[in-house]
Target: BTG1 protein
Amino acid sequence: APVGAAMRTEISTAAAFVTRLLRAAGGIGEEQLRCFRECLQEALREHYKHHWFPLVPSKGSGYRCIRINHKMDPLIGKAAGMIGLSHERLFQLLPSELTLWVDPFEVSYRIGEDGSICVLYESPQPGGKATKPVESRTSCKEEWRIGRSSPSKNYNMMTVSS
Model:
């Protein structure tokens, strides 16, 4: 199957999720939302085209990660621009901290830097290979947690010793 087809479910899940967040915020017409969703799907397809590895699902995870963190994710920004939404308006409508991981067989998100990670879509990997247990799965989620927790620990230790 062509890569485009392989990514379809994951990408449409991600685009539909961001569209749902916009719809929930209110004030945007259905026709605009539909256009936004299609533009975002198209942008994601282009962006992921050469960065999609079903045999190694975590490979390229950081590259595919959609992020709003006081900076608007360029792909969301681009799709919003198509329906005339400015970055300023987007920041009012969307969570100020949003991370969306779009990986083969799994789409998950986290709102807030310390929020819990929620899975939007998960499917077993084809080929009958048992998926590795969660502990051994390294992805940008795990790396993020590790990178995030160490500085604050050191900081606490310094506070204690001073």
Q: What stands out?
A: Residues 73 and 109 are 14 Å apart (CA to CA). The two ends are 60 Å apart (CA to CA). The domain at 3-122 is CATH 3.90.640.90 (Actin; Chain A, domain 4). The chain is about 50% helix and 15% strand.
